[in-house]
Amino acid sequence: MHKITTLIFDMYGVILEESKGNFIPYTLSHFANTEHERLIRQIIKEQLFTKASNGELTSDEFLSLLGYENPQYHMKDYIENYLTLDGNFIVFAETYCEKYDFVLLSNDVSEWSSYITEYYKLNKFFKQKIVSGDVKCRKPEKRIYEMTLEKIKRSPAECVFIDNSVKNLESAGEMGMQTVLFNRDNENYIGTIINSFAELANLL
Fold first, then answer.
1. Radius of gyration for the alpha carbons in the chain, expressed in angstroms and rounded
2. In sequence order, which ranges of 17-124 are alpha helices (DSSP H)?
3. Which of 20-46 are b and which e, b meaning 16 or more Cβ less than 10 Å from the residue's Cβ?
4. Full pLDDT tens readout for the chain, 204 residues
5. For residues 184 and 5, what is the distance between their CA atoms, to the nearest angstrom?
């Protein structure tokens, strides 16, 4: 049996409490009601956020297409004031980052992920960060897991992947990783489920 060497963390819904983020309500609150239909269409139907988190658009391009006149300000305002760090992650990381390699695996806009990890002083915990906007593919595509394993030079059996999405966990499990659902959204999952970093510590 392989020894666990590496913990792979999702960002949204694990390290950040908001599993889906608050970007759509944030955006609707900054534009007139007459603009809401357009904004929903652009974000969801035209998949502008997905394109940005796939590295097809920069953060500035994405936010400018939505109509923000100061995209840098709004990126920072959204991250700093509308997302919530799970403070227990810091306690957990300070205890376990010497025992295990910590890896971030996140579907996110490149600039947003960089700003989040810098703003919350998380970079010191991670040996590697794999972000969809950087590598131009996203969970649950198997390619992003293959890229992660190649980058960290670990076998799947050495890794525990913690995510709040069952689909993402199923793909990682098919690769041979041990998987843990951080169940902020009360999803059904036949595998291991936790509700806090204290429970993850007990599991380890």
1. 17
2. 23-29, 36-40, 48-53, 59-66, 71-82, 87-96, 110-119
3. ebebeeebeeeeeeeeeeebeebbeee
4. 479 999 999 999 999 999 887 899 999 999 999 999 999 999 999 999 999 999 999 999 999 999 999 999 999 999 999 999 999 999 999 999 999 999 999 999 999 999 999 999 999 999 999 999 999 999 999 999 999 999 999 999 999 999 999 999 999 999 999 999 999 998 899 999 999 999 999 999
5. 25
Residue 7 DSSP class: E
Q: How far apart are CA 104 and CA 196, in angstroms?
A: 17
8 Å CB contact between 133 and 105:
no
Measure the CA–CA gap between 79 and 154, rounded to whole angstroms. 32
CA distance 97 to 100: 5
Q: Please give the angle made by the CA atoms of 173, 175 and 180, to the nearest 5 degrees.
A: 25
DSSP label at 12? B
